[in-house]
Design a protein that fits this description.
- The complex is a heterodimer of chains A (about 260) and B (about 280).
- Chain A is about 35% helix and about 25% strand.
- Chain A has about 260 residues and is α/β, with parallel strands linked by helices.
- Chain A has a six-stranded mixed β-sheet with strand order 6-7-8-3-9-10, with helices on both faces. Chain A has a four-stranded antiparallel β-sheet with strand order 2-1-4-5, covered by helices on one side.
- In chain A, strand 7 (about 170-175), helix 6 (about 180-200) and strand 8 (about 200-205) form a beta-alpha-beta unit.
- Chain A is globular, with a radius of gyration of 19 Å.
- Chain B has about 280 residues and is mostly helical.
- Chain B is built from eleven helices and no strands.
- The longest helix of chain B is centred in the N-terminal third of the chain and has 37 residues, at about 65-100.
- Chain B is elongated and about 80 Å long.
- Classes of the chains: A alpha/beta (about 260), B mainly alpha (about 280).
- Chains A and B meet through helix 2 and helix 5 of A and helix 8 and helix 9 of B.
């Protein structure tokens, strides 16, 4: 099957130092590709490159990112706007800062829907409810301000916003890092469940191999801007080739690990 | 919020509210026609009495009634001038902070030029050319006082545009105009409220000074500034002609400053203790 999104030989520099060095990977519909690595390894920058939203001071040097056959870097500003949030959506790490504190949840979510004019004004309300239902939030949250919602609820809301235009690629940048473990599991199951129905491609950015284990189909391990290992999840987890991958895998807390049990 | 509505705001706001009521209902509050003269010797320069609360001026007009009508001028100049400077300051500051680059460069140089002019001198010059009247005064004060506000809004935008929710709105493809007005601006308003309240007081002062110099509200229309001017020649023996308008200006400006300070205390997270 053809890839929806292909990243080829992407190199990005900041202050003349490469921060992403010759990175290539593909995303396929219905699959979860995990981009794993420590902080500063270039995971988030790779994701922002896909949307051509690199922060100022960071320069893309070479490479190609093709979405359905078209190179994103050749597109005009308006064409890019119509892809962002519409065909490619992104969820950020921090549910506490990714929502506008002075705007009611309902308005924020309908804004995401309205941005691409796929729905008429009268349909928007129904669509909001449909989305909230999809992420299992009660429709009463539309009248709440973000500070009235818990972290998990906010992350569901953000997920609903990202899904509002039925994207073909969903980028999740550490979507569960700021949440506690039980909520994390809930959100991951939710994401997997929705993906089973909609068959979009997911780029899942994380530093945590236990999360990779739960959601990913394929894994790319990044270190210092390079992809040091990539392959199917089972292979990488069972038989890591690069010593860095092995170290990351060793960080997974295991059930039954006697030393780490609490006494009593 | 309730416990944070501090005494300063309540005190300042009640005085301004009182002034506003006086301004709106001026014809009912004034005891006499503010323009009616009585040039007979015993009607001129009367000391305050029950008939003339604040005495009469050199033309026999009732100072209290003149001041009541002057309230209208002072408050409307204050509010309208600040409104004009808000519109200019917020739009330019917003553009500057959001887009950065050469837009920011051009607007900031413009702000610096505005800062370089001695503002009061500039106002006086423009008024001299355009002719002194109340509308010109409002517009000119508004047009010359937006620079500080512009910088303030720009600074807020600079920090806010890097926030996650702005990024996330951009990622969703929300148009720039909507990001500026719906996402960033409402979050940038707290310091703007403070600065705007303080500027209302400033604008009232400038209007009084202009009227005092004869460049503002023209006689016979009463304003606090020109009542002061009319009184300055008689300051030796008719103290009421300068004391009351002077007090009115002082109290009004002080009230706006108190509200501004109070708002700052309530809105600025650095000044208040953590509430959690």
């Amino acid at each position: 099957m053809d890839a929806v999104l292909k990243v080829e030989n992407l190199t990005v520099t900041s202050a003349k130092r490469p921060v992403i060095d010759d990175v290539s990977f593909d995303l396929h519909s219905g699959e979860v590709t995990a981009l794993v690595g420590e902080s500063g390894s270039g995971k988030t920058l790779s994701a922002l490159s896909i949307l051509d939203l690199l922060p100022s001071g960071v320069i893309r040097k070479t490479g190609k990112i093709s979405f359905k056959g078209e190179n994103i870097f050749d597109l005009k500003a308006e064409e890019l706007e119509s892809i962002r949030g519409n065909d490619i959506a992104m969820v950020f790490q921090e549910p506490f800062t990714a929502l506008n504190p002075v705007m009611r949840a309902g308005i924020q979510i309908s804004e995401a829907i309205a941005a691409h004019k796929r729905y008429t004004d009268s349909e928007v309300k129904g669509r909001v409810e449909e989305l909230l239902d999809m992420v299992r939030l009660s429709s009463q949250v539309v009248r709440s301000y973000p500070h009235e919602l818990s972290g998990g609820m906010r992350q569901r809301l953000i997920l609903a916003m990202a899904l509002s235009c039925e994207p073909e690629v969903l980028i999740l940048d550490e979507p569960t890092t700021a949440l506690d473990v039980s909520i994390q599991k809930e959100i991951l199951d939710l994401i997997k469940g929705i993906q089973d129905n909609r068959r979009f491609a997911i780029l899942f950015i994380t530093h945590d191999f236990s999360v990779v284990n739960m959601v990913a189909d394929k894994v790319c391990v990044m270190k210092e801007g390079r992809i040091v290992e990539k392959g199917l999840k089972e292979e990488v987890l069972k038989n890591p080739k690069h010593p860095y991958t092995r170290k990351l895998i060793d960080c997974i807390p295991r059930l039954g690990d006697k030393r780490k049990r609490l006494p009593g | 919020m309730k416990d944070k509505l501090n005494k300063r705001i309540i005190f300042g706001a009640s005085i301004i509210a009182l002034m506003a009521i006086v301004a709106v209902f001026a014809p009912y509050v004034a005891t006499q026609d503010p323009l009616e003269m009585d040039l007979s010797a015993d009607a001129r320069l009367q000391a305050p009495s029950l008939e003339h609360f604040f005495g009469t001026d050199s033309l026999g007009r009732d100072v209290f009634s003149r001041m009541v009508y002057g309230t209208r001028i002072s408050l409307s100049v204050g509010f309208i001038a600040v409104f004009i400077s808000l519109v200019i300051g917020i739009s330019l500051g917003g553009l500057s902070g959001y887009y950065g680059g050469w837009v920011d460069g051009v607007i900031m140089r413009l702000v610096e030029v505005m800062y370089c002019f001695p503002t009061f001198f500039l106002i006086m010059m423009v008024i001299t050319f355009l002719g002194p009247n109340i509308v010109n005064v409002m517009i000119v004060i508004g047009l010359t006082s937006w620079a500080g506000l512009c910088r303030l809004v720009r600074a807020e935008f600079l920090t806010l545009r890097e926030r996650d929710f702005v990024y996330s709105a951009r990622v969703q493809g929300v148009p720039n105009g909507r990001i500026i007005f719906r996402h960033i601006l409402p979050n940038a308003m707290a310091p703007v409220y403070v600065s705007a309240t303080l500027s209302v007081g400033g604008a009232i002062l400038v209007e009084s000074a202009l009227s005092f110099l004869g460049l503002g509200v023209q006689i016979p229309t009463p304003s606090w500034g020109n009542i002061l001017t009319a009184g300055k020649n008689y300051i030796d023996y008719a103290w009421w002609l300068t004391l009351f308008p002077g007090l009115a200006i002082l109290v009004t400006v002080l009230s706006f400053n108190l509200i501004g300070e109070g708002l700052r205390e309530v809105l600025d997270p650095k000044l208040r203790e953590s509430r959690r």
